[in-house]
Design goal:
By secondary structure, the protein is of the alpha/beta class. The chain is about 30% helix and about 20% strand. The chain contains ten helices and 15 strands. Strands 1, 2, 3, 6, 7, 14 and 15 form a seven-stranded mixed beta sheet that branches. β14, α10 and β15 form a beta-alpha-beta unit. α3 crosses α4, α3 packs across α9 and α4 runs parallel beside α5. The mean pLDDT is about 95. The protein binds zinc ion (ZN) (2 copies). The site of one zinc ion (ZN) has 8 residues, from α2.
């Protein structure tokens, strides 16, 4: 499903809405799946780009940010890409799992282009009434925010679900945008040893800069070798916590052999169906007294806390290095191909770039 450029008229602005002049959006793993038509429920054609940053070009009526402050034209804004979460359904109210609300929609993924400017690979984005908006903290460059991007917000949720305790040893599987941020956040959450499994080499180097003590190349090692590495590092016990951000069914099988008895495993990377994992439940879950937690989507709180983390730590944690190259609108198919081939940790999109 190649990306095509289209022109749209400027939308009418409802009271309570904002027209954002896009500064940056990003290409994430989900966009590659959407490009190939591998994600269910995508109402093509769409304007991709779910996490973005921009400047308020037009504000209609009184619009308040999530901190209650009034939004003005000229503000540098970021917004939570999930909108229309209903607040009334079983998921929203009874089970308190709003990321499973069936009414929720996501900018750049489940919003059709026939409905308007609901995606970041566009020079303007329509923030409809009710979208959770925040001002980008003054000290945080927009390039840094978008380089953390959706991976950082997902990682905040995953590390929450991991419930890291001071002094834990944490294994992160995957050194994409989610895994890299999970490494940094596990460290900030109090892990005293963080191990990253991933590839290619440049991402492993970045994982070390993000806070990994050990970064293991999964293309150079087999599962037996990696088991030995974990065993050596943990005195034969296994890691306290593993976080999956690899999107691989084999990674799940492997992690269960690497987590210690009574440890915890968070699965955050299977956003699309990677097929079944084959697990000996007796040996690896029941007898090990293991805790396994899924992690689906994110909530406004993860987005807001991601902003606080960036504000406090962006000079020490190299989130900016994740967004290695910026592409213009005419280069998006190339950006997707580069993302898929893992030629860079993350491609950024500047829709106003004149590069062709
Ligand atoms: Zn994403
Ligand atoms: Zn709901």
């Amino acid at each position: 499903m190649p990306v095509e450029l289209r022109e749209f008229p400027e939308p009418p602005l409802e009271p309570g809405s904002v027209l954002l002049r896009t500064l940056y959006s990003e290409v994430c793993g989900t966009d590659v799946h959407v490009w190939h038509g591998r994600l269910a429920g995508v109402p093509y054609p769409i304007i991709p780009g779910h996490v973005s940053v921009g400047v308020a070009a037009k504000v209609r009526g009184e619009v308040r940010a999530v901190d209650g402050a009034r939004v003005s034209e000229g503000d540098r804004l970021v917004f939570f890409d999930v909108h229309r979460t209903c607040g009334r359904c079983r998921a929203c109210t009874v089970t308190r799992t709003p990321t499973r609300c069936e009414a929720r929609r996501v900018y750049g993924i489940t919003d059709s282009a026939t409905e308007g400017l609901f995606g970041g690979w566009s020079q303007a984005i329509y923030l409809e009434p009710g979208v959770a908006i925040a001002r980008l903290p003054e000290s945080v460059p927009p390039e840094t925010y978008i380089s953390g991007g959706c991976g950082l917000i997902t990682a905040v949720h995953a590390v929450d679900r991991a419930a890291v305790t001071l002094g834990d040893t944490v294994l992160v599987q995957g050194t994409g945008a989610v895994g890299l941020s999970a490494v940094a956040l596990a460290r900030l959450a109090g892990a005293t040893r963080v191990i990253a499994f991933g590839a290619p080499v440049d991402r492993l180097d970045l994982a070390r800069r993000m806070g990994a003590d050990t970064a293991v190349d999964v293309q150079d090692t087999d599962a037996a070798r990696r088991h030995q590495i974990i065993s050596d590092l943990t005195g034969g016990l296994g890691v306290d916590i593993a976080i999956e951000a690899a999107g691989s069914a084999r990674a799940v099988e492997e992690a269960l052999t690497l987590v210690r008895d009574g440890g915890r495993y968070v699965i955050a990377g299977h956003y699309t169906d990677a097929g079944p994992s084959s697990i000996n439940v007796h040996q690896l879950i029941n007898r090990k007294h293991l805790e396994i937690r899924g992690c689906w989507g994110s909530e406004v709180g993860h987005f807001v806390r991601a902003l606080r983390l960036l504000e406090r730590h962006h000079t020490a944690v190299p989130w900016r290095a994740i967004g290695a190259r910026t592409y213009g609108l005419a280069e998006l198919n190339e950006a997707l191909a580069d993302a898929e081939a893992m030629r860079l940790p993350k491609a950024l999109v500047d829709p106003h770039s004149t590069r062709v």
